[in-house]
Design brief:
The complex is a heterodimer of chains A (450) and B (451). By secondary structure, chain A is mainly alpha-helical. In chain A, α11 crosses α12. Chain A starts with a helix and ends in a 16-residue tail after the last helix. In chain A, 49% of the residues are buried. Chain B is mostly helical and 451 residues long. Chain B has one domain. The chains are: A mainly alpha (450), B mainly alpha (451). Chains A and B meet through α1, α9, α10, α11 and α12 of A and α6, α9, α10, α12 and α18 of B.
Chain lengths: 450, 451
């Protein structure tokens, strides 16, 4: 296991610097094509949102009582994607897991951009987006306060805290690497990176304080991984709605978030590794661990799905059992079975080492997982609202073209930022890669030397 | 880049087996516990059968959790290929020797103790009707809570998990015993032959065992989750057949892991010299085990909170009754507060300290605190469903419940300690037993940032 990473380790600090920063500020054709596609998707999303602002929420597919639709589904999806980065960077740092080194920077970037994307959706869902500031408890003459008892309000605080800590943690991790980029650039670019590097020179004193701060933020960020998606799950669990009011939701949502986040890391990093020829830093050893993480969380999800059904049946509550049996057999059964297939069945081939070390199999299964996790949220949000206690309120929700457009736009928005990140910031942590290389000390034999 | 194997240290671990026995004082205490347990059980049956079998159930699920948690520790080490806990692996897995005994005690409970369940027609009281109260509801409880079905599925499910555990232990221990037999010759205990199965190459047997176990890990993990949830839903939650929480199974199986890890902490610190673990279990090892316990403690609190908050918030009477009984009634409320302190507040606060995790006896003390808390926690889950008096029967609790618990623990110590004495206390054939050079590197890194 360890030999694979040792064999691929770069020879020197200089090689690590060169290999990782050589892709910065040099857009190639492939990058440009992807950037144009992402930007186009994003612009289409903006146009759809403009239509919605102009004509109102009526052009979304809401069909009372189904007043939470694709926006909330996609919001939860993106918050979930935003989980893996902090898990990989903070929790795996605290447990000294070695495989995080190659993948954590890109995962952190993914986290920040995914949460930025998620944050759009409550605004879009409002309809009157210009009144978004009503979310926040600001002093006002009428002494009006937000409803602190509402789980939706808890969300505002939980996600904004998570975003702040993730962004700061992301930036702290970048500081030594930004100094490397500064030292390897000239002119205006050098000046910009010099500002961003905050005067970093890698002295003992700086490292001493830096590692203290990094450990502190890791410890601060780790519980947030649990808290954020738990709070998101309570948006549902706090309601007396069949299929939502469930005590297992917090850990089940967290496991699902880690599952989807790790799958998204595979989806993003695998092509990137090949495009930038970064096999010395990110290779099958890392992807295999990510696949194992997905397998574990897929197992937890399968367990949670099973327990929900069992308790729904065991409870002898007609409404609980009604919603669970309807999900599997009713009008949205297709969504349910897509979810089951993608989340419980599709990852199973990863039990075989040959499959989880095959790039194509990794990529394709990770796409299935991403699809499955979107449908999981669709299954939870839509089906429970469509099939509530009173049969007279049963309704069917169809996603409108505008909602499709905004959802596509969110992927474009995410891609836009992620692609910009790849061109401007080191996507692999140079400083931590160097920790795995023999220090360039003349005549010194180091424990790490080959 | 491979770890450097210290053969002298391995040989010493094997040689330590010769003549090692459970210390006389421990044996005497264990026997005393068993005698007290039997006496307490007999007295309890004359006082209140439901209470007494409830106490038996608490002790049963608790010691089963320890035994299963120990094996699960080995499974986690195997699945994650972690090195830090390798020296603890053999001690942890040895808890599994108690599992067959636990299964027999479970069968005894299923045969004789089932009338404590109000859904049982033979209930020692007025049985609760379990037919659906609502039109359109499935008649699930009539099927699921059928006594015969309940007995058979519980015994079979637990038996199946124990079978998988046994395969795991056999694979893990086999290589060690082959290696040890080569050194000890005829001085090796005869029961080893069952695990050795005619093999002579310790290294090959060790590697083959690890490879087989690597395949077993996901199956044991999933079966553990299902069977421990079944125990939680059936043996504990169904004592109150109209209350449900779908987190209950996961919550109990995670806390069962924590119970296992805490017991492991006590074994490897208090029994360090007896097991010859001084050179293996270093401060950094207990530091890591302490971190594991800290994470488990936080997860226990998190999953408990995840259950309480939605129930409190929505305030639906069929859900709140279970909590109100345990949190608000004066005869139980004090126990709930004690559990909160012993299971979370105290261990969480203390285990935040790096120093405590590295100090032998203080660390054992925290583990014991947590273990005491979980005994009370399991009691709090079970007893209010079998006893409806207005006051807490303190004397009976101290005599009957603590006595039965002491009996189970005494039995556990005799069975596990007796076997553990006769095997190398560390997994000598395990190629991951020794630190990797990287571990030194990363530890140095860890201590740097922690100053």
């Amino acid at each position: 296991m360890h030999e694979s990473i040792d064999a691929n380790r770069p020879d020197s600090y200089a090689a690590a610097n060169r290999d990782i920063i050589r892709v910065l500020l040099k857009p190639n054709l492939g990058w440009a094509v992807l950037f144009i596609i992402a930007t186009s998707m994003m612009l289409y999303g903006f146009w759809c949102e403009f239509q919605q602002l102009t004509w109102g929420l009526g052009i979304a597919g809401y069909n009372p009582p189904i007043m939470w639709g694709v926006y909330i589904v996609t919001f939860v999806f993106w918050v979930g994607i935003g989980h893996a980065g902090t898990l990989i960077s903070a929790i795996l740092f605290l447990v000294r897991s070695r495989w995080r080194t190659g993948v954590y920077r890109a995962s952190e970037g993914m986290t920040v951009f995914a949460v930025m994307t998620a944050l759009l959706f409550p605004v879009l869902h409002l309809g009157r987006a210009w009144q978004v500031y009503w979310f926040f408890p600001y002093p006002n003459q009428r002494y009006l306060w937000v409803n602190f008892k509402s789980p939706l309000m808890w969300d505002v605080f939980a996600i904004s805290t998570y975003f702040t800590v993730s962004a700061v943690f992301f930036f702290i991790g970048l500081v030594p690497d930004l100094a490397v980029v500064r030292d390897h650039s000239t002119g205006l670019v050098k000046k910009i990176y010099a500002v961003l590097a905050l005067g970093w020179h890698g002295t003992d004193r700086q490292w001493y304080h830096y590692m203290g701060a990094y450990g502190f933020f890791a410890a601060l960020a780790a519980p947030l991984v649990l808290s954020v998606h738990s709070v998101v799950s309570w948006d549902f669990a706090m309601a007396v709605t069949a299929g939502w009011h469930s005590t297992i939701f917090p850990p089940y949502f967290v496991a699902g978030a880690i599952f989807s986040g790790c799958a998204m890391v595979i989806t993003l990093l695998l092509p990137m590794t090949y495009a930038f020829k970064w096999h010395a830093y990110v290779n099958m050893w890392h992807f295999e661990h990510l696949a194992k993480m997905c397998l574990l969380t897929s197992g937890i999800l399968t367990y949670a799905y099973g327990v929900e059904y069992f308790i729904g049946w065991y409870s002898q509550n007609a409404y609980e059992w009604g919603i669970f049996s309807w999900r599997a057999t009713g009008e949205y059964a297709w969504a349910f079975w897509i979810m089951v297939f993608c989340n419980c069945v599709a990852p199973l081939p990863w039990y075989f080492r040959k499959v989880r070390t095959n790039p194509w199999a990794l990529f394709i299964i990770s796409i299935f997982v991403n699809i499955g996790m979107w449908f999981e949220r669709f299954n939870i949000v839509i089906s429970s609202l469509a099939h509530q206690f009173d049969p007279a309120t049963h309704a069917y929700y169809r996603i409108s073209p505008i909602e499709y457009g905004i959802m596509i736009g969110s992927f474009g928005w995410f891609g836009f930022w992620f692609l910009l990140f790849l061109q401007t910031l080191p996507a692999i942590a140079i400083a931590e890669i160097k920790e795995m290389i023999a220090p360039p000390v003349r005549g010194a034999a180091h424990v790490e030397a080959k | 880049m491979n770890a450097v194997r210290n053969n002298a240290q391995v040989d010493a671990a094997i040689d330590a087996v010769k003549g090692r026995q459970l210390p006389g004082t421990v044996k005497a205490l264990a026997f005393a516990g068993i005698v007290w347990g039997i006496g307490a059980f007999g007295y309890g049956l004359t006082w209140d059968k439901k209470w007494t079998w409830g106490a038996f159930l608490v002790a049963l699920v608790y010691t089963f959790a320890i035994a299963q948690g120990g094996v699960a520790f080995g499974v986690i080490m195997q699945g994650t290929q972690a090195r830090w806990g390798r020296p603890l692996k053999r001690v942890a897995e040895s808890f599994g020797f108690f599992l067959p005994v636990a299964w027999l005690l479970l069968v005894a409970f299923l045969i004789f103790g089932l009338p404590i369940y109000p859904w049982n027609p033979a209930y020692w009281g007025t049985p609760t009707p379990i037919a659906p109260h609502m039109v359109g509801a499935p008649a699930s409880k009539e099927i699921w809570l059928n006594p015969l079905f309940f007995q058979v599925r519980t015994a079979l499910a637990v038996g199946f998990l124990i079978l998988l555990d046994f395969l795991f232990i056999r694979n893990s221990l086999g290589g060690d015993l082959v290696l040890a037999k080569q050194r000890l010759g005829d001085a090796a205990p005869s029961w080893w032959n069952f695990f050795i199965a005619g093999r002579t190459d310790g290294k090959a047997a060790g590697e083959a065992g690890l490879a087989s176990n690597y395949t077993l890990v996901p199956f044991i993990g999933f079966t553990y989750a299902i069977v421990m949830s079944l125990i939680a839903f059936d043996l504990v939650m169904s004592l109150d057949p109209w209350w449900v929480s779908n987190m209950f199974g996961g919550w109990m199986f995670m806390s069962s892991l924590l119970i296992g890890f805490s017991t492991l902490a006590v074994f490897v610190t208090v029994g360090r010299d007896w097991l010859g673990l001084a050179g293996w279990v270093k401060p950094k090892t207990t530091h890591d085990l302490g971190r594991f316990m800290l994470a488990g403690t936080m997860f226990w609190a998190y999953t408990l909170y995840a259950q309480i908050l939605p129930i409190y918030y929505t305030n639906v009477p069929e859900e709140t009754s279970f909590l109100l009984t345990r949190l608000m009634l004066p005869q139980w409320g004090w126990l709930a507060r004690t559990v909160a302190v012993l299971c979370f507040i105290a261990p969480f606060t203390i285990l935040l300290s790096r120093g405590i995790k590295k100090m032998r006896y203080p660390f054992a003390g925290v583990a014991l605190l947590s273990l005491t808390g979980f005994f009370l926690e399991r009691s709090l889950l079970v007893l209010p469903s079998v006893y409806f008096g207005d006051t807490f029967p303190t004397v009976q609790f101290l005599v009957i419940n603590v006595g039965i618990f002491a009996g189970f623990i005494g039995l556990f110590v005799l069975v596990v300690g007796g076997r553990l004495a006769q095997v190398p206390a560390v997994p000598v054939a395990d190629p991951l037993l020794f630190d990797h050079p990287w571990d030194e590197h990363v530890h140095a890194f860890g201590s740097h940032h922690g100053h």
